[in-house]
Amino acid sequence: MSGVQALLKGIKMNLRVLASPVPAAVDTVDTFIESVAVNAPGGSDEAEPGVPCFSLNAVQQLTDQWTGPKGLVNLADGVNETALGVIPGQKICFKLIPKPNTSFPQGPAPQVFKAVLTVKARNGAAATELLLGAPREIAFIIPPSPQ
User: pLDDT for 20-74, tens place per residue?
Assistant: First the structure.
């Protein structure tokens, strides 16, 4: 084991995913996202076959610290959105729960609404959170009405 690997195994981070709307007339997060939570059981990841998500101890490694999918208010809301004590290199997966579309009826053309997911990490009691990886754009698509 290299010195860098040994150092990384000693770091434990708290991770969460924040959803942000892409600037537009519609706030996609408020309209289409119910919650973003840690997927504690782990398991296979359809987006990356052969590289499973790490399984977390739901009692010791999950917490509810933030309100809503935007995660702007430090107040519990009943959703375990933060994974505790994650070691760099562990693949942690999150599940996004969409809201039913009650705002936009189907029209003659598809409608696309976008949001951005970012992973934030904090090392212990550090005051600031760091951005991990590149933000990921997601889309909610309302199909056209049947012809």
Answer: 999 988 999 999 999 999 999 998 888 888 889 999 999 999 999 999 999 999 9
Residue 117 zone, left/alpha/beta (φ > 0; ψ -120 to 50; rest):
beta
- Residue 52 and residue 91 in contact, taking contact as beta carbons nearer than 8 Å: yes
| CB of 110 closer than 8 Å to CB of 123 | no
Q: Give the model confidence (pLDDT) of 74-124 as tens digits.
A: 999 999 999 999 998 899 999 999 999 999 999 999 999 999 999 999 987
Residue 71, domain member (yes or no): yes
Asked whether residue 147 is assigned to any structural domain, the reply reads: no
Claim: this prediction has a pTM higher than 0.90 = no
Residue listed under structure tokens 């739901």: 58
Closest CA to 102 of 133, 142, 45: 142
How does 94-123 read in b/e, with b if 16+ C-beta sit within 10 Å?
bebeeeeeeeeeeeeeeeebbbebbbbbbe
Residue 89 lies in a domain: yes
Query: Which residues form the domain of 121?
Result: 3-142
